[in-house]
Amino acid sequence: MTYGDIADYLGISTWTAGELVRSGEIPGRRVGRRVLATRSTVDRYLERRTE
């Protein structure tokens, strides 16, 4: 998932999605010039935030 995908999925801004990945709250990996996260890591973040 790109920052845009994460933002759409969580209902947040693209900038905020990027901040979550840059801070490590949502683990991501650089692939070329893009930073990607898996849906499962985003789901785990969401579960931690809604408990």
Topology of helices and strands:
Layout: H1 3-10, H2 14-22, E1 29-31, E2 34-36, H3 39-50
Antiparallel strand pairs: 1-2
Helix pairs in contact: 1-2
Give a concise summary:
With 51 residues, the protein is mainly α. It has helices spanning 3-10, 14-22, 39-50; strands spanning 29-31, 34-36. The protein has a two-stranded antiparallel sheet.
Short key terms for the protein model shown above:
mainly alpha, 2 strands, HTH_17, SinI_DNA-bd, 51 residues, two-stranded antiparallel ribbon, Helix-turn-helix domain-containing protein
Low-confidence stretches: none
- Beta percentage is 5-15%
Q: What is the CA-based Rg, rounded?
A: 10 Å
Give the biggest sheet. Answer: 2 strands, antiparallel
Return the structural class: mainly alpha
Overall mean pLDDT score?
96
The overall number of domains is 1
State the strand order across the main sheet: 1-2
Helix content: 55-70%
Order of helices and strands: HHEEH
Shape: globular
C-alpha termini separation: 23 Å
- Structure annotation, total helices: 3
Number of strands: 2
